[in-house]
Every structure is written in C-alpha cells, then in structure tokens.
C-alpha cells in the first residue's frame, strides 16, 4: 500500500476538531501554556512513540533496545488521541507526521520541541550531512523551510517524478522520455492520450496518472512549476484565479476529463495506481523514487520500467519537490527528551536508516547514506543516475500552517470534479476553490493567532 494514500477516519475526525475551527480544536492545539520539560535520560529508560505500524516493527523495537538500552512503547498514530495527549500535557515522546504538510501546522501551534540544540551536539546527525529535504521540518514562525528544525524525514522521494513502461511507449510508437531533460506537462499529457488503449468502452491500458500524494501538495507544486505560488506571502490565503494557479488547475482538470488514467472521477479500484502499474496496465505512474522498492523485485517489470524527471510547464521553472517527507518530531512537553533524542539519532542515522537506504523505498535523508542506495542491476543503475541528476533540482514548496492537507483535499474533492465532468468551467471551479479554501485558512489562522 502506498504509504501516504487515503485519509484515515482519525484524520477526518480531526477536521471537525481543528480545521473546522471549533473552540475545542482551537483550545486543543493552543500549546502556549505548556511548560518545557528537562528530563535527563539514557540507557534503561523507556519512551513512547506514536507511529504507524510500518514505521516501527516489533523487530525494530527489539533492535532499539539491543542497540541503545532504551525501551520503546509503540502507540498507533491517531490524530484525535494525539491532540488529547498534547492538551493534557502528557504527549508521546516522539510522533510521526508528514513533513511537507504537517510540520508547519504543528510548529505554528507551538507544541513542537526546537531540536537545533540537539542537532548541534549530535555526532550521528550532523547538520552538514542533512539532505535539503529536511528543511521541510523547519519553520521560522512564518515560512516553512527556514528557521529552527523541529523534526527530520526518514526518507523521501521527489514526488512529482514518474515511472514509465517502455513497452507501452514502444507499442504506441511514442518516443521515450529523456532521463535528464524534462518533458513539458503539455507533452506529458499528449503522450498519455497517444498511449491509452480502450476496448468496448473500458480502458485496458491507462496512459498516465498524475494525482500527487495529496491534492494540496499537487496544486501547490504544479502552481510553483507554472512560475507562481498557490499561497499568499503570509500563507493566509490562496488564489486559484492567478494565471499560474489557473494553468495548474486547468492542466489537472483536463487530465482527469480525458480519462487517460485513474483520477477523482475515475478512481483506481485498488485505492492507488501502483498495482495497476505493476500489472502492466498503466504507461506512466506519478510516483517518485520510492516505488522502485516495489518494481525492482519483479524482474520483468524492472526491465521495462524507467524513472523520469518531473515535467515543467512551457516557459516555467524546473521544480522538483517532495510532497511527503514523513518523519518524527518531539513534543515540547515530552517527558523523556534525552532518551527520545537518542532514539531519534538511532532511527535516522543508525541501523534502521541504513536498512531503509539499501531497500530502495526512498532516498536517505543523510547524504552520507546515499552510497547505500541499490545499484546492483542495470535497471537500478539507470534509476539512480536519473535520481541523482534530479536532486539538483530539488526545492521546498512551502505549505500553509493554517490548514491540513486532508481538510484542503476534502474541499478540492468536493468542488473540482464538476469541471472534470464538463458540468462547469475551470474558472468557476477556481473561484469556488479560492472562496472555500480561504474560509478554511481564515479559521486556522484565528486558532493560531
């Protein structure tokens, strides 16, 4: 299962709690009154980690104890439970979140521990060894990507890249994309139209999917690629009617309208498009480097699979962002900070980090671990070459601290399909989205204010 697909019920409940602007939500995450703990800890200590099952297996819990002497109690990630724990002043010691969309949100609510002091003293996690993707976990009170570090990503991909199947391109007589020079989004869409195969009204081979990890990050990164910004300078407003945001929205609406692959109006029965790509029924799949972990073990699929650079809009800048950057942060009120930091170092710089790097399921977030990325087969060497070149074009596309990706997506998924079905115009959807999302951002800003 794609690690970022689908909003859980817990996340949806959070909409009512926080993004809905209720008094409970505002009070729950207004952490201004939380005092700072100064617990000193080490071997023989125990900490609580609120993570998902695939972040921390029972084997890793045991390995952590063997390696550090610290016991980990794993609690399932649940946003409602997290807010209750933060509010009661008894939070977990480490919490998982998605850097691209969650870091600024929690930092703005003053519930995260500034980790700069810990990084400064660490011999395991040196700031000069941190990949720039970790800047997703920085926030200066105004802009994501600058200021203190509040967390770190466990691994990452440049999520606007895509995999393609050479056999599907060859069958359609379409030239293969360059491994280094990006196609334009317009060319990408032409390829998807040329490759799609339909029989008796059914799509037998989809031409391409481009749905992003969330619609929030997809729209923000597409708008950046068009040379603009979806958010105002202070992140308190969006405007889908600017030329750049409208271009991004129109492109995505057209892609969905053409039904060349799974989308909001033609969902993939598997819940995401990985299995369809695996089955050879999808020519281009908008997933970054991490999907190589699924492709490589399948020798036949690996032989025809290539990773390609993130497209550009004609005349626009070359932007290749990370829409995920899942990692960990430490609550400001955590009871066992020193032990939590030791586990943080272990998780991001020692045995688990080395295992993740060599598995091909993501790019390591320490530059010193890049040499562990798989490069045994010809196909892996090709993928690595494309990925290494793409890293030069990485940039942080900042997200607003005043909403969550799930809240944004709930509005987008409700409003945008009308244009995709041809029931209304792109301009009408752009206006409706601007109004609806701005109401949401206004409520979020009132909570933080």
Keyword list:
disordered N terminus; single chain; 19 helices; 449 residues; 5-stranded mixed β-sheet; alpha+beta; 3-stranded antiparallel β-sheet
How do you describe this structure in short?
This protein has 449 residues and is of the alpha+beta class. The protein is built from 19 helices and 14 strands.
Structural account:
Helices cover 42% and strands 12% of the residues. It has 19 helices and 14 strands. A hairpin with a 4-residue loop joins strand 4 and strand 5. The protein is globular, with a radius of gyration of 22 Å. The N terminus is likely disordered.
Any chance you could write out the topology, listing elements then pairs?
Layout: H1 9-19, H2 23-28, E1 46-51, H3 58-68, E2 71-76, H4 79-88, E3 94-98, H5 99-108, H6 116-121, E4 138-139, E5 144-149, E6 151-153, E7 155-156, E8 162-165, H7 166-172, H8 185-195, E9 197-199, E10 202-205, H9 215-225, H10 243-258, H11 274-278, E11 284-285, H12 292-295, H13 299-304, E12 305-308, E13 326-329, H14 337-349, H15 351-359, E14 363-364, H16 378-391, H17 405-415, H18 417-420, H19 426-448
Parallel strand pairs: 1-2, 1-3
Antiparallel strand pairs: 3-13, 4-5, 6-13, 7-14, 8-11, 8-12, 9-10
Helix pairs in contact: 9-10, 14-15, 17-19
